Amino acid sequence: MLIVAAAAFVLLHLLVSGTRVRDALTGAIGEGPYMGLFSLASVACLVWLIFAFGPARTASGNAVFWTVTPVTRDLQIVLQFVALLLVVPGLTTPNPTSVRQQAVLERPDAIRGMLRITRHPFLWGVALWAAGHLLVNGDVAALILFGSMFFLALFGAASIDAKRRRVLGERWDAFAAQTSSIPFAAIAAGRQKLRLGEIGWWRIALAIAIWAGLLFAHPYAFGVRALP
């Protein structure tokens, strides 16, 4: 059941959201109804995935290939910190890669803050979040859950780029040429400059607060200690 749920969640995004299937559906029923149905399907698949994870993890056939060590636990804590530094600004910064935010491209300052680092901060944050959990959870159920999230985050960025290129054409090409999907690649190439102040110190503070809160709440919310 966990495998089916994970496959449904990943394929919904990669084979529908980021392909010409989406174009055909929006042409047939309109952008609004499509977004409503897609959001509902996404939430349903995610809930299905979460509820399937518990029984799969306690099943007798759930083999364990590795367990947490002091080193991987510390590395996991650092990865979650970096992940939230990407996720929180990624969710709160206007970004033409986000749903219904293509109009951001019309702004003269469209590329600022976190977008100088990567045009897909949220997805890279999810990838780091999933990678960190894979370090400390080596059972089959965890590999399916966090592995599917990691896979979707990485390939989802390319899927979104392709979708935006089809819809926005030259406007997207100009934006993509000045930014990078891989974090810091545009900065390293000289196409952008790192300006931390543009990210917003309140976003950074909020990310740190959420990270600290999750560390202490983890055993109560998920039944597993995150701290040593």
Tell me about this structure:
This protein has two domains: 1-62; 65-222, no CATH class. The protein is mainly alpha-helical. The model has no long low-confidence stretch (mean pLDDT 92). The chain has helices at residues 2-17, 20-29, 31-58, 70-92, 121-136, 140-168, 170-178, 185-188, 196-199, 201-222. It contains ten helices and no strands. Helix 4 (70-92) crosses helix 10 (201-222).
Give the low-confidence spans: none
Termini separation: 33 Å
Strand content: under 5%
Which shape, going by the Cα principal axes?
globular
Rg from alpha-carbon coordinates = 19 Å
User: What's the main sheet like?
Assistant: none
SSE order: HHHHHHHHHH
Helix content: over 70%
Query: What's the number of domains?
Result: 2
Helix/strand-derived class?
mainly alpha
Q: Number of helical runs?
A: 10
The number of E-state strands comes to 0
Average pLDDT value?
A: 92
Kindly list the characteristics that best describe this protein.
228 residues, 2 domains, 10 helices, mainly alpha
